[in-house]
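Subject: sequence -> structure tokens, single chain

Hey, anyone have a minute? Need the predicted structure for the following. Not urgent.
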Amino acid sequence: MRTARNVLCVFFFALLCVSGVCAVATAAEVAFTPVSPTNNQTDFPVTGSLRWSITVTSGDEEISSSEFTYEVYLGSSSQNIQRVAGPGYASTLYTPGDLQVGRTYYWYVRATNGEVTATSDVWAFTTVAEGYPSAPYSPDPADGATETAGDISLRWSPSEGTGSEGVTYTVYFGTTSQNMTVPADGAGITVPHLTPPQPLKGKTLYFWRVEATNDRGNTTSSVVWSFRTMEIDEPLSSGGCALGGASPWAALPLLAGFLLAARFRRRRGGN
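Reply:
Had a minute. Here:
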């Protein structure tokens, strides 16, 4: 009897599926990324902001992350993390405002859009030690930027807080993250910007980082940033001479036409 009942249940369920009543739900996958500080960063400024990003997919479909709100959890031990923002917090940036120097913190984020709820891993960071400048941050061009112009100026937010007195900067720049060098005028900088070596090549990936050194000789480095330049149109030239970006030989057919026209007019005038 039980077997017959099970068969009927399976038959009824199959009938509903054929009729389009039932549907198989695909679970959404949420990927969290700690943008700043990066996980286990050891020189985070005490005045810094926590930033993160999420990517949400359901099968092959990407769900807009703009519909999500958050809860932010933060604590000075992995066993004592408390909610400091939310629920309903709408930004992917949170500034604690009361971090202590030389201390390790733990944090995570919970995201929801009413239908999907997910929680990130627990991340950790350590604030910059007392007597050291905070790490330069907020690069311009932004980290990972594409289609960047070739005549840019590298900019960053300067070190701040205690330990940042008399700070000068050193910029490292290159086309690989393992082989960056200090360009001309790239050391002993007193302002938070530098024009990189020119000209930058088009469609090229560049890497850079900034070291901050205070008047005590203590140095703190930023993380490595990168950007990709846009395609740059370079004028054609011949022997250092160019006409409107084209070779001067391109003007020969036009010049020959003028000469033939002048000769034809002279002949007609002679008749």
